From TrEMBL, chain A:
InterPro entries (alphabetical): ChsH2_C (IPR002878), ChsH2_Znr (IPR022002), NA-bd_OB-fold (IPR012340), Thioester_dehydratase-like (IPR052513)
Pfam family, any one: zf-ChsH2
Superkingdom, natural source: Bacteria
Annotated ranges, domain ChsH2 rubredoxin-like zinc ribbon: 188-224
Residue ranges of every copy of the ChsH2 C-terminal OB-fold domain listed in the record: 64-127, 226-290
Position of the signal peptide: none
Protein name: Zn-ribbon domain-containing OB-fold protein
Automatic annotation (TrEMBL), chain B:
Positions of transmembrane segments: none
InterPro entries: Thiolase-like (IPR016039)
Organism expressing this protein natively: Nocardioides vastitatis
Protein name: Thiolase domain-containing protein
Amino acid sequence: MSRTLSAPVTVAFDYTRSVGPVLGRFLTGLRDGHFIGARLSDGRVVVPPPEFDPVTHQATADFVDLPETGTVTSWTWVSEPVAGQPFDRPFAFALVTLDGATSPILHAVDVTSAAEVSTGMRVRARWAAERTGAITDVVFVPDALGVPTSEVEAAAQPARSLEQLTGIVTPVSLDYTYAASPEESAFFQGLSEGRILGQRCPACEKVYVPPRPACPVDGVPTVEEIELPDVGTVTTFCIVNVPFLGQKITPPYVSAYILLDGADIALQHLILEIPVEEVRMGLRVKAVWKPREEWGTTIENISHFAPTGEPDADFDTYKHHL
Amino acid sequence: MRDVAVVGFAQRQMQDFDGSPTCAELLIPIFAECYEQTGWTKKDVGFWCSGSSDYLAGRSFSFVSAIDAIGVLPPVNESHVEMDAAWALYEAWIKIQTGEVDTALVFGFGKASAGVLRRTLALQLDPYTLTPLWPDTVSIAALQARLGIDAGLWDEAAMAEVVNRSLSDAEKNEYAVRAGGSSVEDLLARPMYADPLRKHDAAPVTDGAAALVLAAGDRAREVRERPAWITGLAHHTDGLHFGTRDLTRSESAARAVAAAGGVDGVDVAELHAPFSHQELILRAELGLDAGVRINPSGGPLAGNPMFTGGAIRIGEAARRIWDGTADKALGHATSGPALQQNLVCVMETTSEGTGN
């Protein structure tokens, strides 16, 4: 068995990004089904257009319409694609220099084997039927027809938007295998047996729960394991009145710091079975465990804390733990 | 300018660290080694600076948890960069130059194996026109490698020579996660992974942590007979857009080495080239001729923990000064896609006559 517990975790967020005048123009072009590049101060024609000239640092202003055909100037074969790439089966990433541009754009080429792509090969844009104004609105395909650019341009001049795009949403989602430290793992293993485990620092003798890899005061490993009771004192608390996504309890309810007897750091948990307005600093509380068959390696084995009925703790007993 | 030297170095590299993303448990023995090498306690360290990124392993504020390994009561003077710890070294060097502190401990950590590293690194690209395509690091490096091959600047055999020398040297490095040379022919016979790159052309995904100790003047002389005096230190960057860069070059590396005073007399260079062809680019940009020993440690192709792969190069170069095998050594670090950002640290046995 591994010395640590681990579990999959996905961290995801949809970034809403304003795009500004230069990228907005480029992305609007993609939505309309054509490429817009920029002519830089040194004469280079670059796509996507940089917002500022890399030499003069002036805002990009000289825009150039570019055709949807170009030449592969470098390529690689993506033998094991990762999530989010343009294809979920092997494909080519390439640097494609559009006709009339002097610098390449990085994008995907839809071919089914590495033998079908080569430096110098001619490619053409294949536009998505539904376009939003994103770099993913297009991929490149081999230009098997070999139609001269000028004829294609004359044949199909896409409509131009009057309204320029001002913002895009770029979702980011990352998958991890998240491991607890050996000390945190011991804590969660303990919970699966109904025990609350902490560790004592050999230097300052403070008891940390959950235990940490090192005492943050002394920077030494906290090796001595301490089993703590499931009874403690509310040191501070807040009444949650605001609803939020994923909330499991109907507000108002109390989230509190609970200093377990013998511990030097408070645990955060819920206080239930008492009207919210009666929760107070010094309130003595005890863990209410879920039925044993529902236990896992999680703090959620403790449903919440509830008042013990004892007299409140004296302020002096927890004043150093606020 | 104050004379500042690298006087301590400790590292760990592994394929798959099974601990927490904060790596605090990995940093404790590394700091202990730094204390042992210097004879210091944490009270002797005037400034702490770390390099790491939460994106690597999905733990928020991991750099805050990591300082548990220092012990921060009373509070310590501390900072962090979201870059390789080589850039944390740069910040620490500046801090010492200001005169505010005389000593610094620089560290970095990362658990790259927790995610899909080549995918996670797409987040360092332009978020409007590149990240939505999730171009992975290996693909980007492969596009760069082919540009050079097509231009006749290098070939697959030259790349394989870099790999063979690196993995042969790595046999003597206890921290290497990939080691064992064979021959150019054998390497070229292996299958393509991201054509024209084979798996051995890319640094292995590596977990790890490392620390470097800096000291000024007499504080450095107290620690080592031959401190590795920093006589040149500079970092530069190239643009964000691939379209505006010549990917067969690393102009920022050339600017950095020029700003660091050049490579005249350099015996040993530790280059942070996570892909074999990138070493060829760097050798040309830095002006390192055939007489300079490159990556005696085995270099990043033998182990490249994210956020310390560059700092380790500086530590390995400094070690050659300490042990007398070099009088002048160069440590290089890179960050960003396709050698976008580059730092050069030149170290010598003496700080005299450098203007530093």
